[in-house]
Fold this protein.
Amino acid sequence: MANTSVLQKEQLKNRIHDLCQEKNALILAHYYQENEIQDIAHFIGDSLELSRKAANTDSEIIVFCGVHFMAETAKILCPQKTVLIPDMDAGCSLADECQEEDFKNFLRKYPDHFVISYINCSAAVKAQSDLICTSSNAVDLVKQIPKDRKIIFAPDKNLGRWVQAQTGREMKLWDGSCIVHETFSEEGLLKLKLKYPQAKVIAHPECQEILLEQSDYIGSTTKLLNYTQKDISNAFIVLTEPGILHQMRKRNPDKLFLEVPGLEGCSCNKCPYMRLNTLEKVIECLTNNQPNIIIKEDIREKALRPIQKMLEMSS
Ligand code: 13P
Ligand code: SF4
């Protein structure tokens, strides 16, 4: 995409617009997508909002510009629709580190536990769960689990630890993490805090505890975005994937947004999976109706229950 001129990009965007009209397709995008993908999306949101949108659309085709577990969730909710993902390799380290069989063996050790799984997991793991949550509703949902139930939380230990602290509920945590949120450098954060002492630090709960402890506000991507609009500060140090800065800057053109670097100044604060999607791949998938998501019906039915429960339980 580096060599694509502004004119070529406009042509690609126009082509996507025409294809969507022709095929009655809806483009959903997560905030971690490249700016140009966010700009062609019909709807941008966090994981919870994207699943709600997928569940309620009349469009025949959903193009999911996000990662595999998100597109899979849309397919679980709308089996009759075609769900396309521009790049089938757009995975997620959290989902990859929690494989179906390993999870089954883990659950066998704690047979009397209530299983709540973060939406960042495969359909096969969702199918073994009692309830699904996202980063925006995890605290609220855990609070609703009866006090006498023991709880397993998978697969993100950082989110799990934060939810434990917020709710006071002990939980058995699966040992998984996000390769992006694990990489933010504390040194990088401290340097930014020194340089911009009035800036508020806002963080996604997938970050490590040491960084969350130094944050003024913690929340899902949508909650962080809303906070930047409501809060009176004019500078924010953002501890999440920097794709979100595009919407933050659009909504707050006069405020300053600073991204925290990854360890040793690498660009690994960008999600390598989310960034696989491109305008060209969106055109390709709309043209060929693939790659499309396919899920075995028995798994889909089992995975649907805890997702529906989440949608019913979250306000
Ligand atoms: P959100 O629930 O905030 O959209 O987060 C999803 C995600 O993958 C964060 O890394
Ligand atoms: Fe998965 Fe992390 Fe990428 Fe989110 S940012 S999709 S949790 S690897």
Q: What stands out?
A: The two ends are 40 Å apart (CA to CA). The mean pLDDT is 96. The pocket of iron/sulfur cluster (ligand 2) is lined by residues 32, 67, 92-94, 120, 178-181, 206, 241, 271, 273-274 (CB under 6 Å).
